[in-house]
Structure prediction request, 367 residues.
Amino acid sequence: MKVACNGKDLCDAVTRVIKAVPARSTNAVLEGIKLTADDGTLTLTATDIELSIEHMIVAEVAERGETVVPGKLFGDFVKKLSSQTIVLTANGSRLKIDYERSEGEFGCYTADQYPEVNRIEDTQHFEMRNADLKDLVNKVAFSVCTDDTHAALKGVLLEVSSADVTAVSTDGYRLSKCVKPIIATTASTSFTVPVRAIMEISRLLSDGDDTVKLYMHKNFLMVRVDATTVTTRLIDGTFVNYRQIIPQHFDTQVYIPKTLFDDAIDRAVLMSRSDKNNYLVRFDITQSNMTVSSHSEAGNVEENLPIKTDGADISISFNARYFSEFLNCMNCDTIVLNLTNATSVCVVSPVGDREDYIYLVLPVRSA
Prediction:
């Protein structure tokens, strides 16, 4: 293999694909990046078997071929050469890299040692706006389960219908649900995407009205964004029946200005984060006032917020961090807390014309 390419393009390609390189693997070749030179392009591929990322750049190919270079070392090296033209020459187990009047050399693996990446184009797919998919991921990814004992919950459930896609995530203490319209679909289906994969897909997307297609086949999902292709294995197992978890009736609705509530929660988190009670914050709610209070060895804070309440007064406690993470992805003027009593779940949603997002969180039994 012999190929010449722009250093900046190569650096950008390595930055994109290296996110799929495992930090450590029992199979050393997986810690590498596969380089494939063919027909005026150089394709970089990285995979940990579960997640694969490919990126293609324009190159002058003098000799076709492929090799596997050590991922982290190669990535760190080419980052220093982004303003130069780079010539890569692979011969057996060595890769030579020429730049200006200098050169370097890497030990390589042969490409036949590297696993094949699944190709799943021309299968079932659905299409939606980039901005909608980015917002969908942003509003649910933070509440995905991180516990290995609940493997089926370590991703985002996507339910595709003829008109929209519903995304759901839960870690057992809170649940996020967001609905977005789709442009078209070839099938109504549901599947669970690993959170790492769907976040990488989201990062590739630009804001705006451009569209993206998500291809599904058996237990794999593939997305192509410009010159980058992400392929991920889907999560096996049954997701929880979230419809049975979300209450339909409440005794109290509390309407709160989002910005004031967000600021109060941030200060409560700051005061309680070193306390053994794990970010405990208490809401004392009356018809026109909510007192947000937090007490710890570091100090105390009590904030009074103007609210509108429909229903009975209530006092209830939560993990403040759960509210902080939720509020960070909200873009509205007012939110509503739907409550029943001090031990029942709270369901939060934005106040607006179209409620496509809800957030459910369990209260904490305060001491």
